[in-house]
Each structure stands twice: as C-alpha cells, then as structure tokens.
C-alpha cells in the first residue's frame, strides 16, 4: 500500500496515457495512480481499463460524462483521495510535460517541511523546452502579474505539477473553489497560502507535449487574467479558518 497517489486528468490522451502510466509505476518510489477521464472520444479510458487488469491494486479510473474542466476534475480526484488513506496527493499532466522522475522530489519537499510542493518552471530562470518564445513570455509575465495582484511569493503560480499534504486538502473547502481552467491552479495556491500553509517551489524542467494536442485556449487565459483580480477582491471579505 502506497501513501502517495498521483491524479491525472485526461481528455483525448491515447498517445500518452499508457506510456505515462507505465513510467510512473516503474519509479523506485511507489505511487498509486488515479485517472480522471472526461469522456475522451479517442478511447483513453478504454486503454486505462485494459491496463487495470495488469495494475489492479494501484491504477484507478473515474469516468465523467463530457469535458467538465480541469478544476472540477481535480476537485473530483481530491475528494476521491481524501475518502481513502493517502498522505500525499499529487497533480500531474498526462503528456510528459511534467517529468515523472520529479515526483519523488516533490514528495521529499513535503516530507522535509513543505505543506504544498510546486514543480516550478521559473524558480531558477526559465526552464521550458519546446515552447515558442511568445508562449514562454506570456506564461512568464502572467506569473509576474499573479504575484503583483495576489501578493503571493510564488514564481510559478499557474504550475500544475503539485504535491499536497493531506491536511491542506482537508482544510480547504473544495466546494468553494470557483475556477475550472488553469486559473484553478492559481486559486489553489492562493487559498493554501491564505490558510497559512507553507508552499515551497521545487525547480523542474518543463517540456512541452510531443504527442496529442494542447488544451490551452483564449477562454482559459481570459479566466485566469480577470479571475485573479476578482479572487483577490473576494479574499478581503472571506475568513480563512479551518472548520
């Protein structure tokens, strides 16, 4: 039985899903794996079901009907994991933009005092591979914008490679998390900081996907840009205390 579980949301990831599953299960540190699939028409869930025959005690699948958003997928996964006895709960992409080898480094940061460890592209310069310069600049300055608006001392606020200690997700009222796109990542970090948890950034190298298609869109970017201001304003009228 592992004390750690990795949540991977999927939508049309048939090119990557088997490789990422096998890679995670080949690591020296033992992890369980929860796939949240939003009704992928390309058969991603079918591939996972086939692999469950091989990894029956460590690979889990939750299927949802339709593309409901990254944030709601993670909230679904968090609640699933909290109903079970996991001490460390991870977020990770399916497309190898996050190196599975770094999972153990994020866990180690939490073992050594962090409540939330973030795989950061920007803590030591800009560590991004295969992104066009326009997207690198947009992401980098977006993180600066988030720091300016929120006051968080986190250089990669939109990062989606994260390890949470169980107590963080138990303390945060997950039903009050509003964002569903990539702004979800900002809101979770902001809320964790507001609750007084220690967030530590761990430097990683982010490599853009080589298989499948990106889920980034103008709508998602707009949500993040304007939503951060609203989130900050709302925080002035909210008490951050554990129930």
TrEMBL record:
Entry superkingdom: Bacteria
Xref: InterPro entries: DPM1-like, Glyco_trans_2-like, Nucleotide-diphossugar_trans
Glycosyltransferase 2-like domain boundaries: 6-171
Pfam families documented for this protein: Glycos_transf_2
Keywords: Glycosyltransferase, Transferase
Database matches in Gene3D superfamilies: Spore Coat Polysaccharide Biosynthesis Protein SpsA, Chain A (3.90.550.10)
Family membership noted in the UniProt record: Belongs to the glycosyltransferase 2 family.
PANTHER family linked: DOLICHOL-PHOSPHATE MANNOSYLTRANSFERASE SUBUNIT 1
Protein name in the entry: Polyprenol monophosphomannose synthase
């Amino acid at each position: 039985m592992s004390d750690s579980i990795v949540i991977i949301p999927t939508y049309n990831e048939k090119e990557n899903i088997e490789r990422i599953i096998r890679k995670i299960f080949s690591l020296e540190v033992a992890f369980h794996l929860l796939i949240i699939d939003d009704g992928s028409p390309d058969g991603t869930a079918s591939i996972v079901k086939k692999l469950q025959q091989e990894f029956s005690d460590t690979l889990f699948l939750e299927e949802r009907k339709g593309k409901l958003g990254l944030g709601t997928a993670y909230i679904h996964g968090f609640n699933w994991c909290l109903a079970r006895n996991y001490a460390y709960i991870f977020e990770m992409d399916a497309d190898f933009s996050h190196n599975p080898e770094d999972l153990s480094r994020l866990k180690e940061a939490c073992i050594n005092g962090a409540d939330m460890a973030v795989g950061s592209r920007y803590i030591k310069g800009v560590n991004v591979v295969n992104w066009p310069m326009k997207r690198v600049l947009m992401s980098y300055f977006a993180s600066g914008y988030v720091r300016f608006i929120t006051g968080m001392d986190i250089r990669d606020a939109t990062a989606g490679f994260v390890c949470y200690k169980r107590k963080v997700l138990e303390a945060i009222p997950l039903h009050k998390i509003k964002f569903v796109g990539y702004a979800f990542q900002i809101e979770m970090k902001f809320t964790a900081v507001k609750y007084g948890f220690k967030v530590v950034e761990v430097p990683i190298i982010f490599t853009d996907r080589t298989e499948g298609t990106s889920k980034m869109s103008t709508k998602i970017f707009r949500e993040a840009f304007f939503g951060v201001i609203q989130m900050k304003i709302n925080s002035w009228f909210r008490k951050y205390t554990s129930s």
